[in-house]
Design goal:
six-stranded parallel β-sheet; globular; seven-stranded mixed β-sheet; alpha/beta; 15 strands; about 325 residues; single chain
Length: about 325
């Protein structure tokens, strides 16, 4: 029996990738897309040869699971509605824009007896999996510090409207790497010191964000999560981690399996990947977890913990001081 998936909103730039993954996975079926913006939703549906549902309830009636790719502030409402209808959920990151909303989503999934998976593709990187194995086996001694980046171009659109996104580069880019660092260190950050700016694009939201995270016992990490790349640079795929051990340093570039194409003049920089399709691996894990009745390897709780870092980061920007993560 096919697992029937519905797409809730075509707002996110990654929506097309999820549709392609759903179509390609054996035993999965993409039923169609609903969008609170009918023009956007119907245009997306036509471009990707899937049905458009003008009524979300009709799509929920027909599907077994949903992929939420709406604007960030709408995640909590859509996920709560899906959970109450008994639908499994794969939700784009950040899971929510506040810890309170993320917690509500986790609790709604538990109450509904459904799977809630946060759309973090980076843990499925073979390079990250190998590094995590090295850390867990203690090959080079204790992991003492991490220097990381998640930079890219400014995505524009609703991403730069805090009323829809919840924030700028800090909201958009921190959660991916915060989750990776939590997995590598095996514990949550205790404090965050963040600084932001908007001098590059001079928008209402921040386009640069630099964070220092404290993990206790002298272990710390730094993260550049800025929209600092030129418009011709790729939007996504600059996730790097330098792991400093007692006896070694490991450098990771999670998207290095690619050929770079630089055109003349104003032709954008393009990449042609030959490595693993991380979105595909992530959606396959979502489908497998539902079928096998087990938690996915990336959970709603993982998304919640990443949101705690973001929220503490914004509090730190306001106070000018390191801020502790709230429970």
């Amino acid at each position: 029996m096919n697992l029937r998936l519905g797409i809730l909103s075509a707002a996110h730039v990654h929506t097309a990738s999820y549709v392609d993954c759903c179509k390609a996975i054996e035993g999965a079926e993409c039923l169609g897309v609903w969008d609170d913006n009918p023009e956007r939703g119907s245009s997306f549906a036509a471009a990707h040869a899937i049905p458009f549902f003008g009524d979300m309830n009709h799509l929920l009636d027909a599907c077994d699971a949903v992929v939420i790719t709406a604007e960030n502030v709408h995640h909590v409402e859509l996920a709560t509605c899906a959970a109450e209808r008994g639908k499994h959920i794969l939700c784009e990151k950040p899971l929510a824009t506040t810890v309170r909303d993320a917690h509500q989503m986790v609790e709604a999934a538990k109450a509904g007896g459904v799977t809630l998976m946060t759309a973090f593709p980076c843990p499925f990187s073979p390079a990250f999996a190998k590094a995590l194995d090295v850390v867990q086996r203690g090959v080079h001694g204790p992991l003492m510090a991490i220097s990381a980046t998640n930079r890219g171009t400014c995505p524009g659109g609703w991403f730069v409207d805090p009323a829809l996104s919840g924030g700028g580069a800090l909201m958009d880019h921190v959660v991916h790497v915060a989750d990776l660092m939590r997995r590598l260190l095996g514990k949550n950050a205790t404090r965050v010191h963040a600084q932001t700016g908007n001098q590059i694009h001079q928008m209402v939201c921040e386009d640069t964000a630099m964070l220092t995270l404290d993990y206790g016992s002298g272990v710390f990490a730094s993260l550049d999560s800025s929209w600092s790349r030129l418009p011709t640079y790729r939007t996504w795929g600059d996730v790097t981690l330098n792991l400093v051990f007692e006896a070694a340093v490991i450098e990771l570039d999670l998207f290095h399996q690619e050929v770079h194409h630089y055109g003349a003049g104003l032709v954008p920089h393009k990449t042609h990947g030959f490595g693993s399709n991380l979105d595909m691996l992530m959606v396959q894990e979502f489908v497998s977890a539902i079928r096998e009745g087990r938690p996915p390897s990336v959970t709603g709780e993982d998304g919640l913990e990443a949101v705690r870092v973001v929220e503490a980061g914004y509090r730190s920007v306001q106070s000018g001081q390191p801020e502790s993560l709230v429970a």
